[in-house]
Amino acid sequence: MYLWPVLVLSLFVGCVFGAADKTLFDEFDRVIVLKEDNYVAGLYDGEMAHAFLLYSSWCGHCQRFAPTYKEFADSIHHWRNVIDVTGVDCVYDTAVCRKYKARGYPTVRFIRPTTNSSVIGETYEGGRSKEDLIAWTVQMLGAVKNPPASWPNLQPLTVAESEAIASGGQTSIVAIVDRESVGQEIMLDLQDSKIRYTVLGSDSANVLEAKTTGIVLVSPKGKISHVVNTEATAAELEKQIKQFTTIKEGDEKGEGEEKKDGDKEIEFVDTTKQYRLHELDMQSAINTAFYFEVSSKSSFTKEDVENLKNFVTVVQRCGSWTPKYNAQLAKVKKALKPRETLTPDDWSGILEDATKVGFPRNSTFIGCKGSNPNTRGFTCSLWLLFHTMLSSCYNTAPGSVSVLRSIHGYVDSFFTCSYCREHFLTMAERMKLLQITDDRTAILAFWEAHNVVNKRLSVVEHDPYFPKVQFPPPSICEGCVDATGRFDTAAIFDFLNKHYRRVLTPYGRLRYVDGVLEEKGAVKYDFRGSDSDSLSSARVMCVIIFMLVCVFMVVCKQRLKLVSVLFRRF
Question: 247: helix, coil or strand?
Answer without folding.
Answer: coil
